[in-house]
Structures are given as C-alpha cells and as structure tokens.
Design goal:
- The protein is built from 15 helices and 13 strands.
- The chain is α/β, with parallel strands linked by helices and about 375 residues long.
- The chain folds into 2 domains: about 180 residues, Glycogen Phosphorylase B (Rossmann fold, 3-Layer(aba) Sandwich), CATH 3.40.50.2000; about 180 residues, 3-Layer(aba) Sandwich (Rossmann fold).
- A 7-stranded parallel β-sheet has the order 3-2-1-4-5-6-7, with helices on both faces. A 6-stranded parallel β-sheet has the order 10-9-8-11-12-13, sandwiched between helices.
Amino acid sequence: MAKYDVSIIAAGRDASNARLQRVMASCLAANLTVELFSSGNKSDVPEGVDFHTVSKGSRALRVSNSFTLPWRARGRVLFTPDPEAAIAIWLTNILFRRPWVVDVREDYRLLIEDRAWARGPAKAIAIVIAKMALLASAQADTTFVVDDWVRPALARNRMVVRNAPDIRFLPDLAPAEENPRALYVGDVRSSRGLWSMLRTIEMAPEWTLDIAGTIASQDLSRVLEWKENSEASHRVKFHGTLRPQDSWKLAAGAWVGLSLLESTPAFQRAWPTKIGEYLACGIPVITTDLPRPREVIVATKAGATVDYDSNELTAGQTAGILNSWAENRGEYALVRARAEKQVDTWRSAASYDLIATSIAKLCASKR
C-alpha cells in the first residue's frame, strides 16, 4: 500500500543537491507527501520529507542501489534524476505498474566526455548505460529535461524545466563588500575551472575566493597539495557540500561570480545554471567564452568573458579583469549596476512547480 505521494530515488545524488532541493520544495509546496532515497545528511533534507540514507560507494554500488530501491519505495509515483534508476524502474515496471517520472538534467552521452575516468572499457560501459537510460527515460509517464536540446528528443510526455534560479534559495540583494571577493558555486573539478580559479587568485593578490561544492575525488589530492604549498591558499575558502540556501548566502556582498568552464562538448551547448543565479543575486559574472554564456554577457554587459585555451591563459585574463576592478572601483561600479538591473529578470524565470503539478496529476490517477 502506498504511504507517500512520491518516492524520490536518487542513489547517485546527495540530499543537498540543488536541483533535488528544488524538486522537494516544489512538492512540499503542493502538499505532496515525499520520501527520499539518497546519500547525505538528514539535516540537509527539508522538514516534512522522510529520508532514507543511501551509502556512497563505487559505481557498482550505485547501480545495485538503483535496482533495489524501487522495490523499497512506497510512493504512488516514483521519481528519479539518475540514469541507472531510470533503467531499473523501466524494467521493474514490466512486473508491476507504477507511474513514474524521470528528470534528465544532463545529456548523458555528452557528459561522458567531461569525465576523467571515462577511458577505455569504463567509457564503453558508460556509453551503453547512457543509451539505455535515454531509451528508458523516453518511456516514463513524464520526462522532464533541463533544456530544449537535451535528449531524449521524443518521449511519451516530454516537458522542459530549465535550471533557472529558485528565489526560495537566494538571499536578498546586498551591496558589494569593501574587500573584493569572488564566488564559485557548483561541482568542483578540473573541467569546471577549478585550476583556472585557483591560479587566478594567485595572480590577483587583493582578492579572496569562496568555493561552495564538493571537490571531485580525482582532484582532491592535488587540491590538498595546493593548499599546502600555494601562498594564496589563505585567500581561498573551500566550504564543501552545502544546501543551496547556504551556498547562496555567500553571494551576499560578493563582487563577482566565476564560471570558468572548459570547452567540453557538453559545455559548448549547455547553459551554466550558476550564471543565472549570480545575476539573480546582482553579481557580475566572469565566464569562459562559451556560446550561451557569451550571448548573455554581451547582451547585458553584466560581466566579462575570457578565453579558454589553458588554465594559465584563462587565469591570466581573469586576474587582469579582477585586478582592474580592484584598482578602479568606479569601473566595477558600472558593471555591478548592470548586473543589479538583471535581478528581477532572473528571479522570475523558474518553473519547478510544473514538476509537482505533474506528480500530483499522476497521484490522482492512482487514488
């Protein structure tokens, strides 16, 4: 017998994951009862959600969890953001039918090119899983995708819910602090500009940097070495994994938001969520010269773009901008004013309630 309206199966996600938090907040606002299966801490889960801890581990454990959790779930509707779980739910529904929803946040196939581990046999296996996940996702009762171009292009009921800023997690607009401070919120890894950011701070001595997010395992030892040896390490604070509302508290007073992504196949097409969130907080943005970020920065003049060829080149250009702003505060004030004009536009772009509405309709069909 169903005990909840929706069971969220997210073995591959931490409970503090931003998109996951937005989904839960929308479901609770719609008075849906929710249980969550994910890793992380209970303190990161919104009040009213029943939390079942899933251990982190190898990719094999993640796959195993994805195939066992649908049998434990007691929701009228199953929801997952994980490709492995989409495959599992699709297959288990052969034996017993339950409405289900999948949230496809990334192009699974292109994402593989962004992962350092995706080499040789591991890459071949990942490609097979990605293709199966796309096939499965198209069979869900509702398939949410994060952008128009994200696959599957065809599904039974496909809806686009972009990763727009959610005002429930953003701070009030605040003036820039006296001392220049940069901010980065998101995955902390090489392809997301980690080493460009750290080198930038080494070259911009008046600046500090807050980094909110989990450091990728393959970069952790090098980060520890950098913290031990770099003269700039005292000006960089790694906050680790935080709930979205805690991450974005760091935006209050920050001078600039950084998005120094490498030019991977996925990033060539993607819209980095953090850019919209920076602008929703009235913070200028410095981004690598990727197509969609470039369009926004050129149109709004609320920041600057830098080239990506190497970490050193990107860092040198970024540091040049930061040093100029620190030395010429009138110049920075003009950029800041243009960013603040974008606040209302970016704070009115979210459509996460579509997810809760869809789940509620599926629940009603099962009552």
